[in-house]
Amino acid sequence: MSSPYMILGVPENAPIDNVKASYKSLLAQYNEIENASVRERLIREIDEAYDSIIMSSAPSRSSGNYNDSYYQDYSDIVSRINAGRIEDAETLLDGIPKNSRDAQWYYLKGRVQHSRGWLEESYKNFKKAHDKEPGNREYKTAYQNAAKARKNSNSGGYNTYNNNNNTNSSSSGNDSGCDCDVCGCDCDDCDACDICEGFICLDMCCDLGPFDDCCHCDDCC
Amino acid sequence: MLGYVRIFKPELKIKEYEVYRGAYCSLCRNLGRRYSPFAQLFLSYDFTLLAMFVAALKPECSPFEKCRCPYNPAKKCHKYSDKHLPDKCADALIITVYYKLIDNMRDKGLGKKIISVLLFPYIFFAHKKAKRLSPDIESIISGSMKLQKETEENPDCSLDEAAHPSAKALSEIFALFGDGTDTDAIKRFGYMAGRFVYIIDAADDIESDIRRCNFNPLKDIYNEDKNLFVNSVKQSLNYTINEARASFYEINIRRYKTIFENIFDYGLKKSADKVLLKYSDEKREGGKR
């Protein structure tokens, strides 16, 4: 088994910057390869070699001076997230020691978790990132989007015409409506709603008739 | 058993409702033919959604035929002309019910336990058949059950982690029906659907789980403050619904879009509200229970 340094074409115990540069150039080279299986195998090899070098260098660096934290540049992690390589990005993120984790760490962790579908954790991390760096617009947007999506179940995708019709108060979150399955009337003052399961409600809600004055609620019936 | 992923009838057009019922009736007939009429007892709305989703992804339109309900001859219904369309959905239903019954026999109270024990012999043999017909679905679901058990060994695990196995299982089942071009979006949609069902089920069962010392990721927050619990669950569900909707629009869905929109915009919210109303302090005065 060749050593990771050999796979990346750098001398043993070369400095991290040389390793990174060599990885980037090999990656660019291998991305040109047409044969998909060969390309993927080679890229996987250099990925594993790069990761093992980075992981093994972490403990020795983390005991040093934190001003010189070895992952000031998160570009590798960002590029992996953008390429959809979520597990790799997360492994790298988790390799960063707890006391070196800044706002960007929490933001990227949030993105990784959001990609995986772990919405609660991603919301918490976006919030942390925003709290640590309130001025950063990227973190603020991520946090606000998540907060908005949690507040109201109608804020994803585009709103359909139904939302503008207001035939029932779907966005108010108020549960005081009757649970009649036929008219879905949300009005709790409407007398007909009390016998809603019957035919009278059908007449009322589907076809405004002599009862249309009884209802106090503007939204239903 | 009926399911949490439902339509909201008042906001559906009649033709949309007929389509939905058609999917439901097709699944029912398929269960009866592929397994036996007894299997039809386990029909649920969640799997009707899956059947509709399968039909929605197909490049060619799946036409309906008129028929009559074998149990209520006075009722006219529709069924898919392609009677094999809901095949895999039926298999997935039987396999899911099998594992759910095992779970009930282990965790739930006496009433549910007795019912589960009575139903189990039939399901055991039906499951054997389902396993043979759809080994891919069996491996997905059994794998997820195993992962769920391991996850639940840690009582402090987060809601996301607890929901992950069943969400992942559903995402993989949904992905079986894609044509390869929008698999990521389909997977995410399935993931969010599975996540929604897990969270709402956990919220529904919180009180009995606490009483029986069963695992439930919402225990801590429920014990802390009921209103906080209701609020927090509502927010988690809203976020999940929004993400489901967002990923749905990235799928190349060829038909029934408005029915799915009805489910996102009204149906899921109504299920959530119904479950959470039990715990909310503001119960309705008079009017409906």
Give a verbal description of the structure.
Chain A is mostly helical. Chain A folds into 3 domains: 1-60, Helix Hairpins, CATH 1.10.287.110; 81-153, Serine Threonine Protein Phosphatase 5, Tetratricopeptide repeat (Alpha Horseshoe), CATH 1.25.40.10; 177-221, no CATH class. Helices cover 55% and strands 0% of the residues of chain A. Chain A has 10 helices and no strands. The longest helix of chain A is centred in the first third of the chain and has 27 residues, at 36-62. Residues 60-70 and 157-221 of chain A have low confidence and may be disordered. Chain B is mostly helical and 289 residues long. Chain B has a domain at 9-80. In chain B, strand 1 (64-68) and strand 2 form a beta hairpin. Chain B starts with 13 loop residues before the first helix and ends in a 12-residue tail after the last helix. Chain A binds chain B through residues 113, 117-121, 123, 146, 149-158, 160, 162-163, 167-168, 170, 173, 175-176, 178-184, 188, 193-194, 196, 205, and chain B through 8-11, 158-161, 164, 167, 171, 188, 191-192, 195, 234-246, 248-249, 258, 261-262, 264-266, 268-269, 272-274, 276-277, 280, 282, 284, 286-288.
Overall mean pLDDT of chain A:
69
Which outline of chain B best applies?
A: globular
Number of helices of chain A: 10
Number of strands of chain B: 2
Count of DSSP H/I helices of chain B: 11
| pLDDT averaged residue by residue of chain B | 88
Structural classification of chain B: mainly alpha
- The level 1 CATH classification of the largest domain in chain A is Mainly Alpha
What is the quaternary state of this protein? heterodimer
Low-confidence parts of chain A: 60-70, 157-221
First and last CA, distance of chain B: 21 Å
Helical content of chain B (DSSP H or I, runs of 4+): 55-70%
Helix and strand run of chain A: HHHHHHHHHH
Largest sheet strand order of chain B: 1-2
Number of strands of chain A: 0
Class computed from helices, strands and strand pairing of chain A:
mainly alpha
What is the gyration radius of chain B calculated from CA atoms? 19 Å
Q: Report how far the terminal alpha carbons of chain A are from each other.
A: 75 Å
**What is the CATH-assigned architecture of the largest domain in chain A?**
Alpha Horseshoe
CATH topology of the largest domain in chain A: Serine Threonine Protein Phosphatase 5, Tetratricopeptide repeat
Count of individual domains of chain A: 3
